[in-house]
Design brief:
Elements (H helix, E strand, L loop, with lengths): L29 E4 L2 E13 L4 E5 L4 E15 L2 E6 L2 E5 L5 E5 L5 E12 L18 H16 L6 E2 L6 H11 L5 H19 L10 H19 L6 H7 L4 H12 L3 H19 L4 H7 L5 H12 L3 H8 L8
Antiparallel strand pairs: 1-2, 2-8, 3-7, 4-5, 4-6, 4-7, 4-8, 6-9
Helix pairs in contact: 1-3, 2-3, 4-6, 5-6
């Protein structure tokens, strides 16, 4: 009797949300929790294809991120952190951040984007009726205050979703999907639970910082990848420095430290590598090859190429030309 070797992948817990991943974003939901007003801006599932980058940006509100599947990287402030299934991170007001899916693996994300504002405490009615401090309100006020204050002081780093805040996304989505009675209440409770569980998940996060050289290496990797993807464009030190959010002087120093050459020399080497390949394999003219690889003219390519290799591009082509079977 033969045993089957077929691997059965586990079902994706949030498969239902893939049908209409942004459905809850259309709901104009706002409510009061204790002495805070909470307005839901976004409440959705999103997917990052392999290598997808969301460049540095920031919000004036709170955005809660959870990773139900896949892996990638997030840069919070100026420190990169790896992301994987089961992790969460919070981007509070004005925190500069950058997101990137793994080059080989897609990354899914559950996102809750909230506007949280402090409200005036309730006042007791003059007719002798129960005040807002009665009927359990004082407990809600105290819990909301403690939770929001904790969220405001959380470290800018990912944590494990050990209290399953992600489950609340599916609870809220299913209530909408099935048109359950009390949808507003379910959504409100789901959001409050996400806030409480997220704050609780950070209780045991260590406070140590990464060495600064790790950030330099990461920015070097970002710059190198950007150059490799865009070497055919008229790249400058200033353009690439802006992309990785540092000064041109810092980027120049990083390239010297990592390669022993200048930024310009590195780009030149990348371009020449591609040009050598095209000279050997393609039938394009020298002018076309120069233009497609970021050189302003074939004359300038001629100068750089001869200085580097001791021969002209045409001489290189004649020596290294690989003929196809149809032309041999």
């Amino acid at each position: 009797m033969e045993c089957s070797s077929r691997v059965i992948s586990k079902p994706y817990a949030f498969e239902l949300m893939l049908e209409q991943p942004s459905a809850l974003d259309r709901l104009d939901l706002e409510f009061r929790w204790g002495n805070y007003g909470i307005r839901m801006l976004r409440f959705h599932h999103t997917s990052f294809p392999p290598g997808r980058i969301i460049n540095f940006h920031k919000h004036s509100d709170y955005e809660f991120h959870y990773i139900p599947r896949g892996k990638g990287t997030v840069v919070l402030g100026d420190i990169p952190y790896p992301l994987q299934e089961g992790m969460l991170y919070l981007t509070g007001p004005n925190l500069l951040h950058y997101q990137e899916a793994d080059p080989q693996e897609a990354m899914d994300e559950l996102c809750l984007h909230l506007d949280i504002v402090k409200l005036e405490p309730g006042h007791s009615p003059s007719n002798g009726a129960a005040s807002t401090e009665d009927w359990g309100m004082k407990w809600e006020i105290a819990e909301a205050e403690a939770c929001i204050q904790q969220l405001q002081s959380l470290p800018a780093r990912p944590a494990a979703d050990q209290y399953r805040a992600m489950d609340c996304f599916l609870t809220a989505y299913r209530a909408w999907y099935e048109n359950q009675p009390g949808l507003f209440t379910v959504l409100k409770q789901s959001i409050i639970q996400i806030l409480l569980r997220t704050a609780r998940s950070y209780a045991s996060v260590p406070q140590s910082d990464l060495p600064s050289r790790d950030m330099k290496h990461y920015r070097y990797q970002l710059a190198v990848q950007f150059i490799k993807d865009n070497y055919m464009e008229p790249l400058t030190l200033e353009v690439v420095a802006e992309r990785v959010q540092i000064s041109p002087r810092q980027l120049q120093r990083i390239f010297r430290d990592h390669t022993g050459s200048t930024f310009s020399e590195y780009i030149e080497q990348v371009r020449l590598t591609h040009i050598c390949s095209e000279l050997s394999l393609s039938t394009e003219t020298i002018d076309q090859i120069a233009f497609h690889n970021g050189f302003s003219s074939s004359n300038y390519l001629h100068y750089v190429f001869k200085k580097k290799f001791g021969m002209t591009p045409m001489q290189y082509r004649q020596q290294h030309r690989i003929l196809s079977p149809s032309t041999s």
